[in-house]
Recover the amino acids of this structure.
């Protein structure tokens, strides 16, 4: 059981440290950010020590090596999700990648005939879901505010799934774009993206998938997904902070207006006006995040070597055990699906009579690191009538005994606050 | 961190519930965690010498934010605004001390129990939520009166 974690924990130096009261670290907050294996840290360090230079400029050897490393990283990261390198745009994080698309859409109205198909205005509809992270909600609210388009959303069922009963009414001829998460950062729910994408495409709408919580945990292939855009963050998938990815279908990226403008993204610049480079460079103004790209490619290689099927299987085992072990404690209610089909290893729960902050504090005293709060998904919390949850989110390095420590900590909190 | 005084106030919050009359009502939230408080202040008199006649509130949140609002209402009801502000300043200094400040029990009374909270930066905002709401509501009440 949990062989994968036993095998690889030694690769993660931070997992060897102790935290409060001398307790060993039980890190159950990978949904917020993952820990990094030595191989990723070494790759970044080696880049800085041997090849550091600004890419795509300069005629010296280091510039050439840095550019090669950067573009090779792009190819590796693309291959990780089944995409050609030319469809991979580097951003700061998944949030920026979503904003890139949202701003590109609102820039389209004034960008000439080639971009007209992206223009958004009154009468158009943007469809999201009630389970979105604020990162995949607020940019669309703002796009609607800027353009006069209307925001609509899928509701949720009581058991933590998307309510698809009004799919046909919600996604139709007025739909311009559907933006949804592949895996909820609170509920763990894995959404049927291909089904929704098919309906959206039947009406010529674009589909953007937030993969921040799925790409690290499941085998994801952009062709099978059926979307037009996929975004994800490096730091949640064993990679460095500061780098995110936008994948977009090539023919779309080629006619989309830029978002952030400046150096590197241009073709010809004159004082009055400029023309822009082909994608992906068109969307990468300024000196790009190079060492981070190299580090993220190392993370992709690491995960590929483990095998994403095996990663998903391991996490499934953790989810099953956590739902059973924590979910069976009297006074604990799981927020999200309790059946384990189409569900990841993110387990949110509330404990009767104890605020999640207080649960988190007691767990922290035991060395168990979880996330508490609304998890940047305030509308979701409102839907379930709760101010916040305690969330344990698991990854490749977590073990079943860490789930036992979590359950023990929850029981201790109940005893401390006298609720049992 | 969880002193018995904190747990007592959490289980039996003082002065809770929204009451009339009041000079101003404010709603404050902690956007990082979703804790909320709606708080009303009733003053008698004008300016700094006005007396805090009542502080009433409804809140939801962790034990720290709920207990802090309760301790605060006990501490400042019946004081002059000037006095109450001084207590508030002292409490703020304690919360920002990262455990380095010896709390003055003569001024802070039960609120000294929160000294341990200052060692947990993530929880300081919880302890301050009620105080910030009170300051805001008091300023608004005084402004209306002037």
């Amino acid at each position: 059981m949990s062989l994968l974690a036993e095998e690889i924990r030694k690769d993660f130096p931070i997992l060897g440290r102790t935290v409060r009261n001398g307790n060993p670290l039980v890190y159950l907050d990978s949904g917020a950010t993952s820990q990094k294996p030595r191989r990723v840290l070494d790759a970044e360090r080696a880049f800085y020590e041997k090849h550091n230079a600004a890419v795509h400029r300069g005629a010296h050897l280091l510039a050439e090596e840095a550019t090669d490393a950067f573009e090779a990283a792009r190819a590796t990261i693309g291959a990780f999700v089944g995409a050609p390198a030319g469809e991979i745009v580097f951003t700061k994080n998944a949030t920026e990648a979503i904003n890139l698309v949202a701003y590109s859409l609102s820039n389209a109205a004034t960008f000439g005939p080639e971009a007209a198909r992206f223009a958004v205005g009154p009468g158009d509809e943007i469809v999201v879901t009630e389970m979105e992270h604020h990162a995949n909600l607020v940019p669309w609210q703002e796009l609607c505010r800027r353009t006069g388009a209307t925001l609509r959303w899928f509701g949720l069922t009581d058991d933590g799934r998307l309510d698809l009963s009004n799919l046909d009414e919600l996604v139709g001829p007025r739909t311009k774009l559907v933006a949804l998460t592949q895996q909820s950062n609170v509920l763990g729910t894995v959404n049927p993206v291909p089904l929704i994408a098919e309906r959206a495409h039947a009406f010529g709408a674009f589909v953007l998938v937030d993969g921040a919580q799925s790409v690290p945990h499941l085998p994801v292939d952009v062709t099978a997904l059926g979307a037009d855009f996929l975004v994800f963050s490096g730091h949640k998938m064993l990679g460095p902070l500061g780098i995110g990815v936008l994948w977009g279908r090539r023919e779309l990226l080629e006619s989309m207006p830029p978002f952030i403008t400046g150096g590197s993204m241009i073709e010809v610049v004159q004082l009055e006006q400029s023309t822009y480079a082909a994608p992906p460079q068109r969307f990468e103004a300024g000196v790009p995040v190079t060492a981070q790209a190299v580090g993220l490619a190392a993370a992709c290689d690491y995960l590929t070597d483990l095998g994403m099927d095996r990663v998903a299987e391991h996490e499934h085992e953790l989810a099953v055990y956590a739902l059973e072990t924590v979910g069976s404690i009297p006074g604990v209610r799981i927020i999200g699906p309790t059946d384990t089909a189409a569900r990841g290893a993110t387990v949110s729960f509330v404990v009767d009579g104890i605020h999640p902050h207080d649960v988190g504090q007691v767990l922290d005293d035991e060395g168990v690191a979880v996330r508490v709060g609304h998890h940047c998904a305030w509308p979701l919390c409102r839907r379930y009538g709760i101010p916040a949850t305690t969330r344990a989110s698991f990854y490749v390095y977590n073990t079943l005994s860490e789930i036992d420590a979590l359950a023990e900590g929850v029981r201790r909190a109940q005893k401390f606050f006298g609720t049992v | 961190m969880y002193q018995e005084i904190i747990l007592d106030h959490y289980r039996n919050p003082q002065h809770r519930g929204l009451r009339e009359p009041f000079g101003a009502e404010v709603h404050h939230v902690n956007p990082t965690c979703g804790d909320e408080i709606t708080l009303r202040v009733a003053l008698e008199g004008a300016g700094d010498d006005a007396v805090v006649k009542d502080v009433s509130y409804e809140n939801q949140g962790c034990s720290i934010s709920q207990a802090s609002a309760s301790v605060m209402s006990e501490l400042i009801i019946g004081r002059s605004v000037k006095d109450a502000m001084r207590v508030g300043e002292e409490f703020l200094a304690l919360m920002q001390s990262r455990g380095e400040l010896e709390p003055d029990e003569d001024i802070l009374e039960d609120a000294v129990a929160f000294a341990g909270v200052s060692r947990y930066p993530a929880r300081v905002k919880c302890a301050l939520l009620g105080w910030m709401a009170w300051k805001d509501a008091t300023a608004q009440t005084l402004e209306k009166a002037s």
Observations:
- The two ends of chain A are 32 Å apart (CA to CA).
- The mean pLDDT of chain A is 96.
